[in-house]
Design brief:
The chain is mainly α and 486 residues long. The protein has 20 helices and no strands. Helices cover 83% and strands 0% of the residues. It is found in: Cell membrane.
Length: 486
């Protein structure tokens, strides 16, 4: 694809991806506020435990093959259909495993409700298998407008179901109904918006070819999902379900915000990396632009969220959720590092080096588990802080291979990140100090948000930060027929 056409495709796709994630996040944010007010922290704790087992199973179902379909230069109907039937078969196997194991999991955690809930929520595996192929088709063809329509429709419908069930007193089943409705609605809408249907085709040769790339992502994804959720498994065993509810709710706010910004950028950038995998200098240029842009947005978002955490939680979720504030602030630091992780790892995958990706995941998880083992006896807050330590170490590990693959040095990396990081920390200090003025909660929160935005954007403009200039110029140039460099 010519460079000018690449930029047009990337910018168009990024617009729709950001719009999709923004719309979905906005609706989800409102739904989660309502549900948190109607339900108890222990309801969210039970669901958090169950999601761990669903996520691990979903990793096996997808097996890295969805990413392999995106990464492959040429894909046929035989590829899509073969992957579809394989993932559907794996979904059946893992649903049976969850169905049979659910009573034992419930007994281990002394939560009888886990068994029936896990059996119902496990049905999402089948729809996830279908959706993984639909997402691959969309990503390969940069059709993110269709994803916007499908995702927004699904979240509106599922949000209504969840709130209605919670208001009717269904408790934890309201969360089950919301999640099950979401994936069913998403698959159904995409069935009509995405021009793909499975055909009666299956090639073991094609599967082996894709799996030669995807199996490393499967192992990497399995390690990553298990590692990211092992804290929940430990907390669920050692602490009351309500404490796990506080932990997951504190994690949820920064995770949703960052994942929507960062995943929007990376979902569009990965196909761009893959299409130009033979042009290493261009891939490096795209990686740097991705890092600079995402950090310019993510760093201040996380710094600002940490600064306004207490009044925000009290106003939105009420005082019963204030115990999640320390976790929210800690996880802001954890998720601020995500742009560094994902940009480097996406580039490695796009270059076809999933073997390097797997090695990195193993090294990082060994370090992370070691830190976790040390912090478990200290307490739940130490476990959360340990994730910040492993996150910082992980950024260095993820960036290391690209010194050789892309000639992207650590010096260049930190030079790209430091402007946004410095301004974000300055802004955070100023915003946090406003709470000592003795104003009402509403006045404090409004003033903090206004000052935070003003300080960050104002300083970026005064210092003529390249990131701000690039984004402003991109918006100005983003009209049909205009050309620019990527």
């Amino acid at each position: 694809m010519p460079e000018d056409n690449l930029k047009t495709s990337v910018l168009t796709s990024l617009f729709w991806k950001l719009l999709e994630r923004g719309g979905v996040t906005g609706v989800q944010f409102i739904v989660q506020i309502i549900l948190a007010r109607l339900l108890l922290p222990e309801d969210f704790g039970v669901i958090a435990l169950i999601i761990v087992f669903i996520s691990i199973s979903q990793t096996f179902v997808q097996s890295g093959l969805g990413t392999a379909l995106i990464q492959k230069k040429e894909v046929t109907d035989e590829d899509y259909s073969s992957v579809f039937y394989l993932t559907l078969g794996v979904a059946i196997v893992f649903y049976c495993i969850l169905f049979l194991a659910s009573p034992f999991i419930a007994a281990f955690y002394n939560q009888p409700l886990i068994s029936p809930v896990l059996r119902v929520l496990g049905l999402t595996l089948f729809f996830g298998a279908i959706n993984s192929i639909q997402n691959a088709v969309i990503a390969r063809n940069f059709q993110f407008r269709k994803l916007f329509i499908s995702s927004l429709g699904a979240v509106l419908l599922s949000g209504g179901v969840g709130v209605a069930m919670a208001h009717a007193g269904y408790g934890v089943w309201a969360l089950v109904g919301q999640q099950l409705t979401s994936i069913i609605a998403l698959c159904t809408i995409m069935w009509f918006t995405v021009q793909w249907r499975p055909k009666l085709l299956f090639s073991l040769t094609r599967v082996k070819e894709l799996f030669s790339f995807g199996w490393k992502l499967l192992v990497s994804g399995l390690i990553d999902v298990t590692y990211n959720n092992i804290s929940s498994l430990v907390i669920g065993r050692l602490y009351p379900a309500s404490m796990l509810g506080y932990y997951t709710k504190g994690q949820e706010f920064p995770k949703v915000l960052v994942s929507n910004i960062n995943s929007s950028i990376q979902a569009v950038m990965f196909p761009a990396y893959s299409r130009n995998q033979d042009n290493r200098p261009l891939v490096k240029q795209i990686v740097r632009r991705s890092l600079v842009t995402s950090s310019f947005l993510v760093f201040p978002a996380m710094a600002g969220l940490a600064a306004i955490a207490e009044p925000l939680i009290e106003l939105l979720l009420t005082e019963k959720w204030l115990m999640c504030v320390p976790f929210l602030q800690i996880f802001c630091a954890v998720y601020a590092l995500w742009p560094i992780h994902t940009a480097n790892l996406q580039a490695i995958n796009a270059l076809g080096r999933s073997d390097v990706f797997l090695k990195l995941e193993i090294v990082k998880k060994v370090i992370g588990l070691s830190v976790l083992a040390v912090t478990i006896p200290i307490g739940i807050y130490a476990m959360a802080l340990g994730m910040v330590v492993t996150g910082v170490i992980g950024t260095l590990i993820n960036a290391y291979p690209n010194k050789k693959l892309l000639d992207y040095s650590f010096t260049e990396l930190w030079k790209d990140l430091m402007p946004a990081l410095t301004l974000s920390l300055v802004m955070c200090g100023i915003v946090y100090s406003i709470q000592f003025l003795g104003l009402s909660i509403w006045a404090t929160l409004i003033l903090q948000i206004m000052v935070g935005v003003g300080v960050y954007v104002g300083l970026a403009w005064l210092l003529k930060l390249e990131s701000l200039t690039y984004m402003m110029n991109t918006v100005k140039e983003y009209v049909p027929g205009r050309k620019g460099s990527c």
